[in-house]
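Inverse folding, one chain.
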């Protein structure tokens, strides 16, 4: 009897059998973990499908809102451009008003030409690496004013008096930034009889000036 109990106790303490039980336990644990992950994946896919379905139903509304926002941004950009144009544009009316206030005896203006040209300026870069600075590009506005006239008092250089009147007129002093803004282009024309009054003679002249260039940067 004692021998049988000893044999039974030895079988219970058999390390191989113990190892099998431990291995089986870990296999069961791993199996349960895999089952849990599969369930997590299943529920995650189910949630994703649900969210996708909800998104598909709401996407038209989202597209409508984003399109509306894009249109608002475009309109605001155009309004800003119009505002810059209205506040920064060159007003030729002010120039014409100044010209009608600078009348000189024996000088007749025959033609006024205003030239407004634009040149594109590409962005420029200053420095290198982390200290590199980008200067935005823009459009350079160039404005030239040309006045053609007749000097009916060539002996006293009437055209020169007219030129001085223009150069010293407050509007031109302010906008040209200098007192010698107008210059004589080419040379004076020859003495010519006035077709409306042959008793008078005149010389043709051309005065010109350039307003300071205006750079309008890209926004």
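Residues assigned per position:
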């Amino acid at each position: 009897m004692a021998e049988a109990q000893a044999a039974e106790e030895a079988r219970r303490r058999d390390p191989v059998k113990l190892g099998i039980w431990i291995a089986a336990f870990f296999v069961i644990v791993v199996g349960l973990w895999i089952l849990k992950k599969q369930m997590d994946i299943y529920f995650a896919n189910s949630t994703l499908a649900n969210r996708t379905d909800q998104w598909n139903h709401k996407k038209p509304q989202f597209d409508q809102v984003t399109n509306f926002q894009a249109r608002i941004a475009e309109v605001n950009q155009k309004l800003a451009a119009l505002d810059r144009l209205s506040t920064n544009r060159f007003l030729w009316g002010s120039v014409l008003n100044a010209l009608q206030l600078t009348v000189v005896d024996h000088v007749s203006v025959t033609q006024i030409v205003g030239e407004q040209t634009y040149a594109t300026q590409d962005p420029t870069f200053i420095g290198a690496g982390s200290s590199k600075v980008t200067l935005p590009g823009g459009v350079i506005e160039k404005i030239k004013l040309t006045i053609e006239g007749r000097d009916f008092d060539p002996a006293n250089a009437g055209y020169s008096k007219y030129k001085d009147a223009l150069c010293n007129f407050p509007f031109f002093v302010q906008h040209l930034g200098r007192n010698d803004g107008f210059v004589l282009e080419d040379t004076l024309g020859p003495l010519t009889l006035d077709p409306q009054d042959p008793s008078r003679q005149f010389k043709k002249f051309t005065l010109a000036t350039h307003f300071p260039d205006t750079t309008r940067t890209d926004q």
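The CA atoms of residues 129 and 139 lie 27 Å apart. The chain has a mean pLDDT of 82.
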